[in-house]
Amino acid sequence: MVRYGANNIKLSPSYLNKKEKLVDNLIGKYSRKISGKVDLNDLATRFSFEVISNILLDNSCEEMYDDFVSLANSATIVKLLVPTPFSTPEIGRIHERIISMKSTFYTELLELFDNKPKLAAKAVSFIMLAGFETASTGIICAVHRLAFDQDLQEKVRTDQTLIPKLVSLSLFANPPLMQNFNMLTTSNIEIGDGIVLPKNTRVNIFINAVHNYPDFSMDNNADSFCTFSGGQRRCVGEGLARIEIRAFIKLMLNFRFKTDDRLVPNSESAITAKPERIFIGVF
């Protein structure tokens, strides 16, 4: 079985501190890919994929990028998440290619493929969603904010200690997930004003509805920040996502860039809020 607990330890703050230098090292590699007119969606998605493969597999799996992208599109994810008979060539190819990788995480996942293929497929799709689509969406929205606002871009370039704050504000304004996955109450819960959620009630949290603070700040409204959920169900990959977005912003601040494209949600994206393709001009 896949032992998620062991991998949660891998994503602890102490582990991520060691991996942050590895992520920063990608800046040099990706700097060489940036010039002229840049497809921000493609660049951010490739960057996010390489970070995930380095963190979980301890090596780059750039040659598998196209396979992972085909799996990570929202339509495929939705198909994998519903309880239907499972068999796709995409998963088969990923299955075979993962065999050659020496990684405890994926070795355990392969055992699950052999015994419970449908459950394994859902696990793969969840990894794609939680560690790949969401992070790249966060990157795109944060960089778009800088590309669209030249004054803000120059301010952050001059004082890069503002980057963590920019990341939080961007994740608040444009949360990658449109809603948290539903939860089940285990007891009667009073949420104020005499409103009681009975035991065994399924609750969906619509993040954009909660994030309805025009003057939001992490100092004053931290309890309303639910991009990564909260409590025991808080996203274990939050630290990694923040590292990815910070690193990509540092990468882009080596250049001056702009866009006239606005953030328009992709109508084909059923789960994440990834926008339609955005191009930025680098000068």
UniProtKB/TrEMBL annotation:
Family named by the database record: Belongs to the cytochrome P450 family.
Residues reported to bind heme: 235
Domain of life: Eukaryota
Protein name (record): Cytochrome P450
Record-linked InterPro entries: Cyt_P450, Cyt_P450_CS, Cyt_P450_E_grp-I, Cyt_P450_sf
Needed cofactors: heme
Keyword field contains Metal-binding: yes
UniProtKB keywords: Heme, Iron, Metal-binding, Monooxygenase, Oxidoreductase
Species whose genome carries this gene: Conidiobolus coronatus (strain ATCC 28846 / CBS 209.66 / NRRL 28638) (Delacroixia coronata)
UniProt xrefs under Pfam families: p450
Entry keyword Isomerase: no
Family matches, as PROSITE patterns: CYTOCHROME_P450
GO terms, molecular function: heme binding; iron ion binding; monooxygenase activity; oxidoreductase activity, acting on paired donors, with incorporation or reduction of molecular oxygen
